[in-house]
Amino acid sequence: MMVGRDVQFAVDKKPCEVGKPILEVEDLVVPSKVHKNNAVRGVSFNVRAGEIVCVAGIDGNGQSELIYGITGLEKPTSGTIRLEGRDITNAPIRERSKAGMSHIPEDRHKHGLVLDYTLADNMVLQRYWQPEFQNHGFIKKNAVLQYAERLIKQYDVRSGQGPATIARSMSGGNQQKAIIAREVDKDPQLLVAVQPTRGLDVGAIEYIHKQIVAERDKGRAVLLVSLELDEVMNLSDRILVIYEGEIVGEFDPKKTTVEELGLYMAGAKKQGEAKA
Question: For 211-239, what is the mean pLDDT?
Fold first, then answer.
């Protein structure tokens, strides 16, 4: 009744068709800004084409720093990150983007949008330097407006003044839709989505889940970080549990339970340990 239509809470997705590894992380160590210990300690995993891999854990166990290291927001102390076989461990953020990585950040206000810019300007934040949108350092305003109008229509971004809408004035759901439109339209090989539905209404959540599954069905690799266990269980093809900066378990969502995941997330169990 709130959104004016039927909402499907269960995520409708077909079995995944897994391809080659797109993201490969080996022995990654990322320092913490709040304490002397490392926030991420020797993490290794991969994400293959055509699958959604979810990193699940209680907030504050290194998820944010792991994503910062992968996306270039934080410099790792050691370890290797490869995107389609290319070492991007120390690559600038723009180079990661050009190599095929898109990032839906945890904090849409801090890392996703420039709130006082127009919606049109926000839509080209990752692409303004391309010849399509600039000529000899000058932005092609008409090209930016046409591009923004296409994304607004294609991704159903509700904005009072269309491309001229100031991002700050939009609802959280439509701000998130704008970020997803921008990142997905880059046609990435790897989509990194961090808590993509946090604070959104049920209609926006359903829409975003469908977009993430659609990217996976196109053969993209999706790395998802979520604190919502229902989202973890319904959206993932593979689940990695992180506890105190280490991957302590890997699970098939069809063969595990919320209760079992909870034990690993709380540090009560760890794969590879001898049973008592």
Answer: 94
Buried b (16+ CB within 10 A) or exposed e, 24-40: bbeebbbbeeeeeebbb
Residue 120 lies in a domain: yes
Instruction: Establish if 213 belongs to a structural domain.
Output: yes
Is 276 a residue whose pLDDT tops 50?
Answer: no
Is-contact 133 143, C-beta < 8 A?
Answer: yes
Q: Indicate the pTM of the whole model.
A: 0.91
pLDDT tens, residue by residue, 116-153: 999 999 999 999 999 999 998 899 999 999 999 999 99
CA gap 152, 156 in Å, rounded: 6
Through-space distance between the first and last CA atoms of the chain, rounded to whole angstroms: 51
Query: Which range marks the domain in which residue 233 is found?
Result: 21-265
